[in-house]
Amino acid sequence: MPGRLEDKVAIITAGAGYIGTAITQSFCREGAKVVIADFDPCKWEEFRTKVQVPDLNKVSFIKTDANDDSQIREMVKQVMATHGRIDILVAMVGGSKDALIHKMTDEQWDQVINLNLRSMFLSCRAVVPQMMEQKYGKIVLMSSRSYLGNIGQVNYSAAKAGVLGFTNSLSREMARYQVNVNAVVPGFVDNPRLQAMPEKFRQMRIELNPFQTAAEPRDVAEVILFLSSDESRQVTGQSLRVACW
Length: 245
Hints:
- A seven-stranded parallel β-sheet has the order 3-2-1-4-5-6-7, with helices on both faces.
- It is 45% helix and 16% strand.
- It has helices at residues 18-29, 41-50, 69-83, 106-134, 154-174, 192-195, 199-206, 217-228, and strands at residues 9-13, 33-38, 59-63, 88-91, 137-142, 179-186, 239-242.
């Protein structure tokens, strides 16, 4: 039986990370061809050792700085030359530089806004012309529960709130072309970096999850799989929370 993403071509920016690996496994299980666009080739080598997919030949890597417009456009050009279409974009790039506002530098503000928001703008701008021509596409953008606000994260919270406004606006622009645009809002997703947190802070995060547990990357990946499949053809402009109220 064909998978839900059979022969679909998916780009995952920053896709060689912990959640990106889970997304790739879900996509490949359902028949997709996955292009990992990431700035660090070393991550690709590590990724190849830990990803479990039926056919690793369906997964490729293109070194890409998601904040460099020329590199983003070149990556899209390469995907089109190889596959002839782009069906799915999952924009995963993100990161934080925490500080109380009176100690936050211009550099910390700019880095976080660029990393979480500008990169998303560049990726979407490069991909949507092809989706418009196809009259088909799925765009899934990564936000965070932190959009609700955290002490020391005015930059990160502002960026992740911006993702939701971006999602709402882009979904309205793209609906006439049969392109779905949605966001995922994860809460506490366990990974090695968060496992190293002091137990007090881990517990505080876990308590924000209705189920009082840390989510696994696959919990996020399966929601993204739904939003990337034709099962979500009437879902757009939405922000789905995972592992948080």
